[in-house]
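In response to the reviewer comment on reproducibility (Comment 2.3), we provide here a single inverse folding case reported in full, input and output, so that an independent group could reproduce the run without further information from us. The structure tokens appear first.
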């Protein structure tokens, strides 16, 4: 049943990314020609209603890639915005689907960019995947992914098997791997075909960097899925699994929590799945692609503009 639920989430995300249409909100255009809705001016109170809602939020789940930074470049105003959020007594949890760094490494990166961060404030899809797998028997895993994912699984008591020994794997765990080879893909497919449970950190199709996008974990997961005909259990956004962990960490009621991100099909969808307030930022550039059928509660240009509503 768990796999079936995540299959439905995956289908929903792909359907949402294909939709187009006007949301009926006040539209503006920034210097890059990106159309955005500064605040949702709905009939039930418009701007004042939105401001009151934002001011009532006590915890923010904030995406990293495309929201706080792109690649190794800070998105202007993000450092100031996060400082203001924390200074107002609000909780911040950085929530990323990128499984290539540990929370400690992400905290170091954020601090280098001038953003206050502690490892305890960072939840990655690697950590969430390892936590999700606590429900299973500790056994052997074949991993497509980098050291942060392998380490997270090892810390939960799973044994990592290498290419050539994939026949021993009870689980195949797939995330972003920037050293991917055909041999790794073939080994993962072989293990899944032998009956290994197929688990994905996330299915993000791409990763925002300076000047564009790189292939994301979803492109790798998709290759294994297509080759084997087996859909994975997906743990990262927009799955309910990572959202449950995130909300537990914040320790707040859902009505006091908002998620902030740059992807409608990932961040906004995750918020809708969790039943929390959703904020889309256009700083990631994704709104240039198309309007989408899934409507966020609020759209702003950046984290800095969001904080201006407090």
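Designed residues, in position order:
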């Amino acid at each position: 049943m768990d796999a079936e639920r995540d299959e439905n989430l995956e289908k929903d995300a792909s359907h949402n990314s294909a939709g187009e249409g006007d949301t009926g909100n006040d539209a503006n255009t920034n210097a890059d020609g990106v159309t955005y809705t500064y605040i949702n001016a709905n009939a039930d109170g418009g701007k004042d209603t939105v401001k009151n809602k934002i001011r009532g939020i006590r915890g923010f789940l904030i995406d990293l890639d495309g929201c706080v930074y792109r690649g190794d470049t800070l998105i202007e105003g993000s450092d100031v915005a996060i400082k203001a959020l924390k200074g107002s007594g609000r909780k911040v949890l950085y929530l990323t689907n990128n499984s290539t760094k540990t929370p400690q490494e992400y905290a170091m990166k954020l601090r280098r960019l001038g953003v206050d961060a502690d490892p305890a404030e960072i939840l990655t899809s690697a950590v969430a995947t390892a936590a999700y797998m606590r429900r299973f028997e500790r056994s052997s895993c074949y991993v497509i992914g980098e050291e942060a994912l392998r380490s997270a699984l090892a810390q939960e008591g799973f044994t990592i098997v290498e290419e050539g020994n994939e026949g021993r794997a009870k689980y195949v765990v797939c995330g972003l791997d920037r050293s991917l080879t055909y041999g790794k893909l073939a080994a993962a497919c072989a293990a899944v075909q032998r009956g290994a449970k197929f688990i994905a950190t996330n299915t993000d199709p791409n990763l925002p960097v300076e000047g564009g996008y790189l292939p994301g974990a979803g492109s790798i997961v998709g290759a294994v899925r297509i080759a084997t005909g087996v859909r994975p259990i997906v743990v990262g956004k927009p799955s309910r699994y990572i959202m449950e962990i995130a909300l537990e960490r914040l320790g707040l009621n859902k009505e006091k929590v908002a998620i902030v991100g740059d992807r409608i099909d990932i961040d906004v969808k995750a918020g809708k799945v969790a039943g929390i307030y959703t904020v889309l930022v256009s700083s990631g550039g994704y709104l240039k692609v198309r309007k989408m059928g899934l409507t966020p509660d609020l759209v702003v240009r950046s984290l800095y503009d969001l904080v201006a509503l407090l």
